[in-house]
Structure formats: C-alpha cells, structure tokens
Write a structure and sequence with these properties.
mainly alpha, 6 strands, 5% strand, binds NADP nicotinamide-adenine-dinucleotide phosphate
Amino acid sequence: MTADGRLAEAGGAAIGVTGLAVMGRNLARNLARHGYPVAVHNRSPERTRALIDEHGTEGTFVASESMEDFVGSLSRPRAIIVMVKAGEPTDAVIGPIFESIAARVDGTPCCVHIGPDGAGHFVKMVHNGIEYADMQLIAEAYDLLRAGLEAPPAEIAKIFRAWNDGDLESFLIEITADVLSHIDDTTGRPFVDIVLDEAEQKGTGRWTVQSALDLGIPITGIAEATFARSLSGHADQRQPARAAFGSDVSSLGVDDDDAFVEDVRRALYASKVVAYGQGFDQIVAGSNEYGWDIDPGALATIWRGGCIIRARFLNRIREAYDDGSRPSLLMAPPIAGRPPPGPARQLRRPHLQARRSRWLLPRRVGR
Ligand SMILES: NC(=O)c1ccc[n+]([C@@H]2O[C@H](COP(=O)([O-])OP(=O)(O)OC[C@H]3O[C@@H](n4cnc5c(N)ncnc54)[C@H](OP(=O)(O)O)[C@@H]3O)[C@@H](O)[C@H]2O)c1
C-alpha cells in the first residue's frame, strides 16, 4: 500500500515500526486501525509484504524495503518504534537509523555510539558546560569591543561576521552577529540594548561543575561562566550594589582600533580553546573513572555539525587526539602551537588592557 493524498499532505507517516515479527506486526496494525498512518519495515522484506497482503486494508500502511526509504517516508520529527530482537540486533538497527538522520560534515554523519550506560548523558552534560563557557566568552568579547571601540551593536555585528569567516567560524559566532544586528520592532533600538540582562543557570552547567569537582579536573572557564549566569540572575542585588559602591571603571583607552579588534579576536579564540580543552579533559577523566572507554577524537568529529558548540576548530581538537594521548589536550601540539605562539600569550593583551581600566574579567555582561 502506498501513501494516500492525506499522507502526502501530512509530509509522511506519523510513526514507523521496524521489525515486523509478532510484536512489531501487531503494534503496526494497532496504530493503523486507530487511524495513524504507519510506516513499516523489516530486514527481510517478505514479512513486510505478508503484513500488507494480509492486513493492508486495516488502515494506512507505508511499506518500505530499504532503511533509507523507511526513514524518508516519515514526517518530522521522526518517531520510530524498533521491534527487532533484543541486544545486538537492536543496536545494529538503531545505528543506521541515527546515522541516516544525523547532521553530516564532509560526508561523515555526526553520530557515534559513545559508550555504555551513562556515557552519552555525561558527554552531553559536559557539552552543555562548554556551551556556557563559549557564550560567556563571546559576551565578554562583545563587551570589550563595545566599550573599547565605542561602537553601536550593528558595528560589532560586522566584526563577528568577519570573524566567522576564519578560525572562529562556529554556530555561536554566527548567531551572535545576527543577534547584534537585530533591531527591536517596537522601540527601534538594538535588541541587545533592551533585552533583560538576566539569565539563569539550569541543570547541565551546575552538574558539569559538580562533576568536575568530584573528578578533580579544573574546568575554570565553565565554572566562571556558570557563576556569571547565577550572578546575572540576581538583579535584585546588582542594582543596590551599584548604588552603594558606584563604579570607577574608566574608558579602555583604545588608540588603535584594528589592533584592539585583533587582540580581542585572538584572546577569544585562545579562551575558547582552553574552555573546550578543559571540557574534553573532564570527559577523559570521567571515562577513566567510570570505565566508559570514550573516544574523545570521535566527539570532536560529531560535534562539528548539528550541535550548538559546532565550530571549525574542533578539527584541531580531533587532530590533537589523533596525534596521541597526553596529560591534557592543551599540551597537544595542534592546540598549544597554533596559532603561534599558542593560547597563553593570546590572552594577555586584552586582559592587561582591561585591568588598566579597572575592568574585571571574567565579567558579568549587562547593564
Ligand atoms: N514476543 C513477545 O512476547 C515480546 C514481549 C515483550 C517484548 N518483546 C520484545 O519485542 C521485540 C520484538 O519481539 P518479537 O517476538 O516480535 O521478535 P523477535 O523474535 O524477538 O525478533 C525478530 C525480529 O527481529 C528482526 N531481526 C533480528 N535480527 C536482526 C538484525 N540483525 N537486523 C535487523 N532485524 C533483525 C527479525 O527480522 P527478520 O524477519 O529479517 O529475521 C524480526 O523482525 C524484541 O526486542 C523482544 O524482546 C517481545
């Protein structure tokens, strides 16, 4: 049976069942009888044909003989019930399904079996922690540029857009440019100037920091970002504190705009490398502690597409792991040595400049 007009309009079957032995076949029939168009598939196509021959009139079945056609016959988000033999056959079926729906970079699916029991959740938790750090660093870079150049957000957006053509290319840099150029319809003001400067920290940042303390891994960038988010949520304390203590922050005194922008770009790149490196160190420590045998190079590969922290320089992190193991990712030649003279020195100039003007870094960005 093929898709009818109603199905085509809906963009595909509502749900799919693969594995049409006793359980899958009956579940598919049940769904169809209740009015849900159901995509069906089985490793051996004879079972699929038998289902359609014997029960095809009970509802709308969309039969496929290949996994690709099966996945393609489903509406999004795709819901698939896997009813094949438990254990290895189930893994064998799930793998290709995930690979076929995953983002792809250079033809490689951003999908890998990370490890047993909680390994995948642990990695996703640290991924989110890295995301906290990445966003904090971008916010600080924006803040330095805005104050240093005394330029409006739309001008800073152009800088981020240009950065996105180089080593810093990433989803977060790209959307930062979009956000900074966005003008609020109601007030006609830059959106970034009217949005409430309060965020909260949700579970994953906090859990990442808690886990790092347990594992004894210094993830200073992620921890600072998590605390900055907490601080930002305490507007009730910030305003009275400003009234009580005032501020003696002076202008950043930038005399060469281009050099300053380049200093901030390099510092942002170096800081991001440090934050990602610390997160990867935590994943390696967790993997060792819990016996998960996680391949960190594979993570750098799958994070290149389809996720929030996707970034061009993950290629370097993958190179670093391909290059052999070492006590910390930050000591790997592809990370420590590029761009010369390595991350540490890139950080100093904007930091010194900020400190001369009595700015605190790390910093809560906002009004
Ligand atoms: N039967 C029950 O009472 C019952 C109760 C609760 C839960 N379950 C669970 O429900 C699931 C389905 O049970 P079942 O009794 O209907 O079927 P099953 O006998 O456990 O498994 C047969 C199904 O698995 C497929 N299969 C086996 N190895 C495969 C592989 N390497 N790649 C792709 N497909 C493979 C078979 O495809 P082919 O036709 O191509 O061989 C067939 O569709 C199982 O996980 C089972 O543990 C069953």
